[in-house]
Amino acid sequence: MRYLRFIVPLLVMLGMGFCPHAAYAGEGTLDSLRSVIRNHPQDTTKAMALCELAFQLNRSGGEDPRPYLKEALQISIDKQFKKGQGFAWGQYGVYYQMHGAYDEAEIAFTKGLEIRREIGYLPDIASVYNNLATLKRKQGDYASALINYHYALLQYESLGDSSDVAKVCNQLCIVYRILGNFKQSLDNGFRSLHIREGQPQPDSSEIGKTLMAIGSTFEYKGENERADSTYKIAKRCFETSHEHRELCSVLNNLGNVQEYNSNYEEALGYYKQSYTLRSGLNEPLESAKTLRNIARIHIALRQFPEAKRNFEAALSLLAPTQEVVQATLISADLAELYIWQGKPEIAIQMLTKLIPSLDTLAETSQRIYFREMLSLAMAGTKDMDSSHYWHLAAQQLRHAMDIESNASLYQLDDYITVKMENLDLKLTQQELQLQKERGRMLWLGIFSLVIVLVLIILYGLQRIQLLKNRRNAIEHQYKLELKEREVENLEKSKENEFLKISLEVQDSERSRIAQDLHDRVGAQIGAFKHLFGQLRDDFAAASPSFKQSFEKLNGELEELMADVRAVSHDLESPTLKTFGLVAALGGFKDMFARTPGLDFELDVHGLEKRLNARTEHHIYLILKELFNNALKYANPTAFSIQLLKVERQLTVVVEDNGLGFDPQSPRINAGLGLQSIKNRVQYMNGSLKIDSAIGRGTIVTIEIPLQQEMI
User: Fold this and answer.
1) Is 260 a residue whose pLDDT tops 80?
2) Residue 643: what are its φ and ψ, rounded to 5°?
3) Whose C-alpha in 47, 250, 305, 575 is 20 to 30 A from the C-alpha of 438?
4) Residues of 682-710 as b/e, b for ≥16 C-beta within 10 angstroms?
C-alpha cells in the first residue's frame, strides 16, 4: 500500500500534461483535486490542480471558484508558468460569462488568448476562440461571433479533432441562420451531422442537437414540412438519450411549426408536453417561455381568459428570477391580448411603462415587435399620429437591421479572408512548435509510463505476498476450527451416548420396579387381604370395638393395594404399552374429571398411526412430568395438550393458566423434573421452548424431528 502515495500524484501530473480535464473525470473529482492541492508545494502541479478545481466548480455551479483562480494565477506568475496563467484567465472568463458579466468575461478571455498564443498550444487557443465566439453570440455581436467560430474551426481542423469540429459547425449553423445566410447555415449543419453520424459510437444526443439547428434553419426559410420532419427525428434522438431538457426545446420548435401552419390544436399539444416536462426540471425562465407560447395559441383560438391566465403565470414564474428581457416580452404579449379584447388603453399603459426596458432587448427583432405593438395600440384609440410614428420607428429598425446584416456579411467575408491568410502563416509556425512539443511530451509520457509500470509491478508483488500470507492464515484458522469442531462433535457424541444409556437405565429400572410392585408387593398384599377376609368370619363374637378396628385395618389395606397399583401404573403405563400415546393421555382427562374446577383439553392431529414405542414412551413421560408439575405447583384452572404431526415433524404444545414461574431461575433449572424433560428432548434431537412468567401461566413448545426409526 505504501506505493500508492507515489502513483496517484504521478497519474494526476500525467493527466494534466496531456489533457487538463482528463485526470479528474469521474466520482470523487473535487476530493481528489483538494488532496493534490494539499499535498503539493507552490509549484505548477498545484496551479493546474487549482485551475481544474475552478473548472469543476464552474461546471457544477456550486462554490465560487475565484479564490482558487486567484491563487493559481499568483503561483503561475511567480513560476512564470504560462500554461497555468492561460488556463486561469480562461476559467475567469467562463465564470463571468455564466454570471452575465460579459465585459469582464471578454477581458479575461482576451488575456488568456494572448498568453496561449505565446505558448502556441493549439487545443487551448481553439478553446478560447470558441468561448469568445459564444460570448459574442450572447451579446448579439454575430459578426464577431462568426469570426471567432471560424478561428476555432481552423484550429480544431489542424488538430484533427472531429468531435470539436462538429460542435463548432453546429454553432456556425445557428449564427448563419440568425444572419439570414441559410446556405452557409445548412452547409455547416449537414457537415456537423455527417461527422457525428460517422463516429464509431454516434451520440444520439449530439445528433439531436445538430438536427435541431438544421430544423431551425428550415423553419426560418419557411420550409415548414422539412423543419417538422427534422424536428421529429431530433425528438426521437432525445427520447433515446433521455435528454429531457433538449426534448422540451424540440417540442417547443414543433409547436412553433404547427403554429405557423395554423394547426393551433397540434401546436398547443406540443407546448403542453414541453411545459409538463419543463416543470420537473426547475427552470423557471424556460417554463415561462413555454407558457408564453401556450398563451399565444389561446389568443389565436380566441380563448382570451386562458391566454391571460398563462401570461400571468409566466410573469409569476419570472418574478423571483429578476429576468427583465422575457418579462418585457411577455408583458408586450399581454398588451397585445388587451388590443385583441378591444382594450387598447390598458395596452398603452402597459407598453408605456415598458419603454425604459427597451434597452434590455438584445435582438433587433424584439425591439421591432415592441414598436409594432405600440402602433397597434395607438391605432385602437384612434390616435393615428402616434400609431404612424411607432409604425415608422419599427420600419426604420427593420430597414437598419437588413442593411447591417448585409454589410456585416460582406465585411465579414473580406475580413475573414485577410484573417485566414495571416492565420495560415501562424499555423505553420505553431505546427512546427507543436511537433517539437509532441516529441517532448511523447518521451516524457514513455518515461512516466515505465515508472508507473515498475511501481505497478512492485505493488502487484506486494499484493501477491500479502494474499499468500492471508491465505496461509485462513488455512491455519480453518484447520484449528476443524479440530475444535471435531472435538466438539466427539464430546457431543459422548454426551448423547451417555444420555442414551442413562435414560435407558432409568427406564429399565422404572419398568423393573413397576413389575416388582405389581408381581410381588401387589401379590403379597392381595394374599394378605384374602387372609383378612377369612379371619372376618372367625371374629363374629368379638367386641364391637375390635370389629371396628378390624374393618379400619382392612380399609387401609385396600388403600395400600390401590396405591401400589397406581405407583406401578405411574412407573410404566399398561395403557401406553397396549393402546398407545393418545389413549394413555386420555387418562389425564379422567384424572381432571375427578378434580372439580379444572378444565382439560386434548387436541391431536396427524397421529392416526402409532409412533415407535420408545418415542411414545419419552413423550408420555415428558407430558406426565409437565402435568404433575402443573397440578403440584401452578394451581391451574385449565390445562391443554396439543399434538400436531406434519410429515416428519411432531409439535407438542402444553399450556396452563396457572401461577407461572421464571424459566431463568437457577432453582427451577436445577430441578430434576425440568432436567429430565430437557434430557429426553435432547435424546430425540428435539427443541424445547418455555414461555412463562410469574402470574401469567406457562406455554411449553416441543418440536421433534421424526427419523425413520421413530415412526
Assistant:
1) yes
2) -120, 125
3) 47
4) bbbebebebebeeeebbebebbbebeeeb
Residue 597, helix vs strand vs coil: coil
Q: DSSP states of 387-427 as a string?
A: HHHHHHHHHHHHHHHHHHHHHHHHHHHHHHHHHHHHHHHHH
How many C-beta neighbours within 10 Å does residue 674 have?
18
Return the C-alpha cell found at 570: 405411574
Least confident of 107-116, 203-212, 425-434, 480-489: 425-434
Average pLDDT, the chain: 78
Cα(194)–Cα(197) distance, integer angstroms: 5
Cell numbers placing 148:
471567432
pLDDT in tens, 611-621: 888 888 888 88
Asked if 326 contacts 318 with a C-beta cutoff of 8 angstroms, the reply is yes
Instruction: Select from 164, 241, 168, 163 the least CA-distant residue to 197.
Output: 163
Kindly provide the b/e burial profile for residues 516-541, where b requires at least 16 CB atoms within 10 angstroms of the residue's own CB: ebbeebbeebeeeeeeeeeeeeeeee
Strand bridging mode 687-692 / 698-705: antiparallel
pLDDT of residue 269: 93
Most confidently modeled range among 160-164, 398-402, 458-462: 458-462
* Per-residue model confidence as pLDDT tens digits over 530-543: 566 666 666 666 67
Cα-Cα-Cα-Cα dihedral of 48, 53, 54, 57, to 10°? 160
Category of 160 on φ-ψ map: left (φ > 0), alpha (ψ -120 to 50) or beta: left
Question: Which of 318, 313, 234 lies closest to 272, judged by CA?
Answer: 313
Which DSSP category does 471 fall into?
A: H
Give pLDDT tens digits for 162-178. Answer: 888 999 999 999 999 88
What's the maximum distance between 2 C-alpha atoms anywhere in the chain?
A: 164
Residue 18 above 70 pLDDT?
no
221 CB contacts (<8 Å, ≥6 apart)? 182
- To which residue does cell 420607428 refer? 393
Q: How many C-beta atoms lie closer than 10 Å to residue 348's C-beta?
A: 21
Q: How far, in Å, are 503, 508, 664, 677, 678 from residue 690 at the CA level?
A: 22, 29, 10, 11, 11
Edge to edge, what strands does the sheet with 698-705 contain?
599-605, 638-646, 649-656, 698-705, 687-692
Q: How many CA atoms lie within 13 A of 328 on its CB side?
A: 20
Length of the chain measured in residues: 711
Q: Which of 586, 585, 595 is nearest to 638 (CA)?
A: 595
Terminal C-alpha separation, the chain = 62
* Short-list 217, 110, 183, CA closest to 409: 183
Q: Distance of alpha carbon 91 from its chain centroid, rounded?
A: 33
C-alpha cell at 226: 422539412
The bridge status of strand 599-605 relative to strand 638-646 is parallel
Interval 674-687 mean pLDDT: 86
Q: Are 654 and 699 in contact (CB under 8 A)?
A: yes
* pLDDT of 709: 60
Q: Select the highest-mean-pLDDT range: 207-216, 324-333, 618-627.
A: 207-216
Burial (0-12, 13-18, 19+ Cβ within 10 Å), 581: buried
**Residues 65, 54 contacting (CB under 8 angstroms):** yes
Q: List Cβ neighbours of 530 (8 Å cut-off, separation of 6 or more).
A: none
Grid cell 413448545 in the structure block, residue:
701
pLDDT of residue 562: 60
